[in-house]
Each structure stands twice: as C-alpha cells, then as structure tokens.
Specification:
Elements lengths: L8 H11 L12 E4 L6 H15 L3 E6 L8 H20 L1 H5 L5 E3 L2 E3 L12 H12 L3 E6 L8 H17 L7 E7 L2 H5 L14 E3 L5 H14 L8 H10 L4 H11 L11 H25 L3 H13 L8 H11 L5 H13 L5 E3 L5 E3 L2 H12 L15
C-alpha cells in the first residue's frame, strides 16, 4: 500500500486563523512554534495542509527546511529563501530589468540585490521582507522547518534575531504582515528559541503539533476496506496499537501495512492485523537494539557523557564539579574538562551525530528516540544497559 497523505484541513484552518490574529487570547501572530517527533507527519502537514491553506487565504508562503540542508549555513538558507522569493517577484514584475542584466532592481521602492540579503554588503532581512511585502502586495508567512538547527551557528542565531526584529517592525495592532512558523522535531531544542532572556523569541510558547490519532486510523481502515472488501470489518484497535508501536510514524506504519496486506504472504492463516502488529513489535525491538548498540559501542567516558546528557536535559553542564564527579564515578577514572570536551566532540562528529550543540554551548541528544529509549529503561529499572558502567546514585 502506497503512503497516502492524510489531510488535516480543520487543523490547518485553525492555525491559519490564529496566525492572522483572528483568534482571541492567542500568541500565534507573534510566532507559531510547533514541535513533533521526526517522521510523524509534521513537515507533511506544514507543506501539504498549512501552506496551501494560507495561500488560499491570500498569504505569500515561504518555506525552508534547515535539516534537509544540514550542511549549509542556516542563516544563509533563511536569507536565500527570502532572496529566491524576491527573484520570483522580479520575474513577475521586472522582466525588462532582468533582460538588461541589472544586478539590482527596485522592489516596492526599495533597491536591493536579492543575492546579498543578510550579508555585510547587502540589505537586512527586515529591509528585504519589507520589499517583498510591497512587491507581492500580500502578507507573508515564513515557515522554517527544523528551526532549532539555526541555533548551531552564530549566523543562524543572528538570522533568528533579525526575523524577530522584522516581525516587530512590520506588525502592529490589528496588522499582521509577517507571520513566522518555527517547527522542530525536538521540543527541548526548539524551546531554546523562547525560554531565556537571550533567546530570539523569548516569551513565546512552544506547542505540540497534535499527533495523528483515531481519525487517521479510521481513514486508513477505510482505505483498506475500499480496496479489500473481503477484510471487512478491519480491526481498528489493532491498527491503532501497531501505529503506537511504530512511534506514530505514518510512513513506516503504511509501508508495513502494505506488506501485511500482500496476498503472497506465506501464512494466510494469520489475519493481516496480527501480521502488522508482529512487524511493529519487530521494528520496535530493532530500533531499540540499534540505539543500545550505538551506546555500548562508545568509550566508557563517551557513555558517561551521553548518560549525563540524557539524565539532565536542559540542566546539563558538561564541565561543572558535579558532572566531573559523575564521570569519575561512572568510569572509575579521574576525568578532566579537556578530556570531556574531546569525548563530546567525538559524539558530535559521529554519523549520524549523537549529540547536538547550540551556538551558545548548550547540548542535547541529537535523536529524540534515544530519549525515549533512556526513559523506558530507566522506568523499568534496567538502566544502564551492559556491564561496564555500574554507577548507582549515592
């Protein structure tokens, strides 16, 4: 079974109305911050539901995924997205200027070069967005997917500050001309955009994107019943259980569902719902085994540092006295700050990286699945895995 996009028009309309200031007691006009685990349909919703709904309501939508271009400077990606939108306006409004080979043209009375936005000799993001507003003659919604990646560089942080400044200057009482949507697959990382006085969007609220739920399961069951009348009625409870085991990741769920429905499967005595559940349990075990293998393959100090990050979350401080004492207890060896830095660098340089670092020196586990794995073992009293690390809190 091919993956079908599950439309969420009602949710898209709710967000679009809130962003435009049409919902009382809502901070969305100052920025909509949405979080949802990776591969749970967040980007699909933003691109296929929210963006089209905003466009239907007369909004110019800009979109950039900072994770899809992880090797490029996030600040430049943000500036280039605005520049590309201006280029599109030039194509519509200034064909003659483009034909003459001019390096810069006037957009809404503002003369600038779209290729130099955000650079030292170029215009600011605010000036560029103001020009885009005048040229397009419609409000702008800028959707930045995996926005927390901007915090990994100074230029990325500066871009976030510039967007906040542009929002403050372009919007006003009863007027919302620049809407910002910041999404992230890790709540803790996305929170760093809003939860300190130094954060670009201090005071804003991070909201969880509602996960796909019973309506998605009903939609999927209806697809199955429409294609396979012989399977009516589909056991939606088992489908829902399997979806949870797949970590609420629709693509994995639908791919495995297609395999479970394959009429060439050898054992046709087992219903497809049970085959799907069996596949979900296998996948869960494989995912956890992979994470455990990565963890146990680290050096003793690497494991101790990652353990500390998972345990402390935002309170993690890599080099304070308590942390150094923790590493020493766990490894049985004296540990100094330079050695810890080297271990953290190794964790960050792995492919894929195990540790994320912000430009401000904040750290987190790169994959949210590792947090879930840690919490599951901790709650079951089975942490830490393996024999070498035997630390027990005193």
């Amino acid at each position: 079974m091919n993956y079908h996009h599950f439309p969420r028009p009602d949710l898209a309309r709710q967000y679009a109305a809130a962003m435009q200031g049409k919902v009382l007691f809502n901070d969305a006009p100052n920025g909509l911050f949405l979080t949802g685990p990776r591969r749970t349909g967040k980007s699909t919703f933003l691109q296929n539901d929210l963006a089209p709904e905003l466009e239907r309501q007369g909004v110019l939508v800009l979109y950039v995924d900072l994770w899809a271009n992880a090797n490029r400077e996030p600040g430049a990606l943000i500036a280039n997205t605005i520049g590309d939108a201006l280029e599109a306006q030039r194509g519509l409004l200034h064909k003659a200027a483009k034909a003459t080979g001019l390096e810069s043209v006037t957009f809404g009375g503002i003369r600038l070069d779209p290729h130099k936005i955000g650079q030292k000799d170029g215009e600011t993001l605010h000036t560029a967005l103001k020009a885009l507003l005048k040229a397009a003659k419609k409000p702008i919604a800028f959707i930045i997917d995996e926005a927390q990646h901007a915090l990994t560089t100074e230029a990325g942080e500066n871009a976030m500050m510039a967007l906040k400044s542009a929002r403050d200057q372009l919007n006003g009482p009863g007027k919302v001309e620049l809407m910002l949507v910041m999404s992230g697959s890790d709540r803790d990382k996305l929170m760093r955009l809003v939860n300190s006085h130094a954060a670009a969007f201090f005071g804003s609220t991070v909201k969880d994107l509602p996960p796909l739920g019973s309506d998605f399961i009903d939609y999927t069951a209806a697809l199955v019943e429409a294609q396979r009348h012989d399977l009516k009625p589909v056991d939606v409870a088992k489908l829902a259980e399997a979806f949870q085991l797949f970590g609420e990741r629709p693509q994995y769920f639908m791919d495995s569902l297609g395999q479970a429905l394959n009429p060439l499967v050898e054992d046709q005595t087992i219903c497809f719902e049970d085959r799907l559940l069996e596949a979900a349990r296998r996948q869960e075990a494989i995912d956890e085994a992979q994470i455990e293998s990565e963890y146990l393959g680290l050096s003793p100090l690497g494991r101790a540092v990652l353990w500390r990050i998972l345990e402390k979350g935002e309170r993690f401080r890599p080099y304070d006295a308590d942390a150094l004492a923790f590493y020493q207890k766990v490894t049985g060896r004296k540990v100094v700050a330079p050695t810890v830095k080297s271990a953290i660098d190794t964790l960050r340089q792995r492919t894929p990286p195990l540790v994320w670092k912000s430009a401000r020196g904040e750290y987190a586990a790169d994959d949210l699945a590792m947090h879930r794995w840690y919490q599951k073992l901790s709650e079951a009293g089975k942490w830490p895995p393996g024999e070498p690390l035997v630390y027990h809190p005193s």
